[in-house]
Design brief:
The chain is mainly α and 79 residues long. The protein has one domain. The protein is built from 5 helices and no strands. Helix 4 packs antiparallel against helix 5.
Length: 79
């Protein structure tokens, strides 16, 4: 998981793999973590949750993953 050669972080290649199957299953009643449009729609809430360490439920993301997600949002949420 790294930005492409142009420095672009994409959903399919970089962001979607951050979410494990058990993360997706836990959130599925509200939104689908493997669905681009769902993640874009709630991206700020997800960012807040991963920054605070409340998501995922079993332990905080490493800082590099939080930073990648944040940069993806700042970059306009490319697919």
């Amino acid at each position: 998981m790294a930005p492409d050669s142009n420095g672009i972080i994409g959903f399919e290649t970089d962001i979607k793999p951050l979410f494990r199957a058990k993360d997706r299953d836990a959130m599925r009643a509200s939104f689908d973590l493997w669905d681009y449009s769902d993640v874009v729609r709630v991206s700020q809430a997800i960012l807040h949750a991963v920054r605070s360490g409340s998501m995922p439920c079993d332990g905080a993301w490493p800082p590099a993953q939080v930073e990648m997600f944040s940069r993806w949002i700042e970059g306009g949420t490319p697919p």
